[in-house]
Every structure is written in C-alpha cells, then in structure tokens.
Amino acid sequence: MSEHTGLKITIIGGGIAGLFAARVLREKHRVTILERSSGGNEVGAAVTPGPNATRILDQYGWDPSRCGALVLGKTRTMDHNGNLIKETDLSGIKQAFGSDWHVVHRIDLWNELLRLATAPSEDLGIRGSPARVEWRAEVVDVDAESGDVKLGDGTVVPSDLVIGADGIKSATRHLVVGKEGDQPRPSGASIFRFILPRETVDKVDSQAIDPSRPAELTLRIALDGSRRTIVSYPCRNHELLNIGCIAPNSLIDLPPADSWVAPGEKADLLRVFGDFHFRPLLEYVYPAFAFA
C-alpha cells in the first residue's frame, strides 16, 4: 500500500494515547492529530508501563534510552515507619513476559511518542508518511455519521475515521457511550504529586536514588486504616525521584475546583503525611499539586 492510499484518519487529542495511535496507523493511512494545547502539557509526573505495554512499544520502535526510561528491578512495601513488609525481585520479568517493566517521566515518554508519530519514515525505517499535528486545534463538534470534525475557528476536517483520544474532558466519548456513561465519577481520594532532583534527595537519603542498580519502586502504607500511601521511584536516568502521596479527600483540605488539578498546600501535605518516616523529604516539597 502506498503512502497515498488508505484511510484519512483524524485523531482528537495529542496525548500519549493519541500519539501512539498515530504511530500505529501512520504506515498505511493518512493521519492528522488535532491537539487543543500548544504541546507538551501532559498532566502528571512519572508512569510505570509494565511489560504488557512495553512489549507493544518495543514493536513500534520506542527507544527507552531516548526518554530516560529505567528498568524496574524491585518493588518494596513498607509501613509508615519504614519497616520492610515485602520485597519483590522483578529481574525475571522480561524472561516471563517478553519485555521489561519500566519507569519513565510522563513528558519524556510523550516526547518519544511524538517522535515515533511524526519523524520522517526513513529515520524510523518504516513506510508511509508521518502524522501531521495541528496544535491549538480545539474540537467543538463531531458528526459521527459523516466523520466531519468541526474546530473552534470554523474549520471542518473531513475524515474516514475519527479516534477520540482527548482525555477526561473528551468531546467525543459521549458519541460512543452516551451522556450517562460520559460522566466521570469521583474516586474519593486525591494525590499530591511532585518530583525532587537527585541532589535534593541525596541530602536526606543517599540510597533512594542509586544509578548503580536497577530502579526500585517503594510503597509506604499507613497501617492505621487511614488509607494513606506514599509511592516513590526514580525516573529520567536516575536524575529525579517521582513521589505520590495518596489520601482520602476527607483528610485533605482542598478548595472547590472544577479542574482535575488543584493547588495543594505544603502545610496540608505535612499535616496528612507528617508521621511517615518519609517526612524529611516532604520538607523539600514546594509547590505541590493535588489531583482529584
């Protein structure tokens, strides 16, 4: 199939899902990505794609070294005082499941997927044409019958296939699941997410980030029934420590917010998690953000 045949595919949303869909489809189809932001605005910190995900990424040419992805070699579970409860060796993951378990900064993964979606085909050793990305393209309506996608500036993008990959505030999901199924449901919990550089982490715990060994993910759980948890792991070639502090909303003094991202007060973070042995690192956090 030549690069001039195939379907005209419009992907709404240029996040991780949209970019990877573009990489998969670009070899045999003409792909356009419509992204309402100016790019590089992925919400969150780091992610932990397991072997079921990285095995697929491997098939489509991702390069872990380009995005500073680290192989996850061990997980540890501790109580809030730092006492070890369980340790799991993950060194056999690749042999068992065909690929490694990785940890990677979300924006670094996004940049790698953008490369795979838009780089010249000869650079990737594949056929077809690169996907085209339209930044600041706000979708206001989609005609599910005709495939026409209408933008905020009045432009209509005709399509043979429309893929909705536009996240929690999707303009397309209701066309598939209906209005009722389109409504998100609150989890009842929030997470303070932040990242600390290695030079800061080393001041408190020189073992938390150790480039000489595979990455470790540590889960710290309060065993008092409060459902408080802290998770941490390195990313970006051991340059950063990703930290997430999870607690029920009833424990966090969050102001009303329409956004999924609300500013979190450091004092609130320390009040809720101050009894964890991890507190010395939390003292270095500012600002923090709470995700509903």
TrEMBL record:
Domain FAD-binding: 9-176
Keywords attached to this entry: FAD, Flavoprotein, Monooxygenase, Oxidoreductase
Single Gene Ontology MF annotation: FAD binding
Entry's family note: Belongs to the paxM FAD-dependent monooxygenase family.
UniProt protein name: FAD-binding domain-containing protein
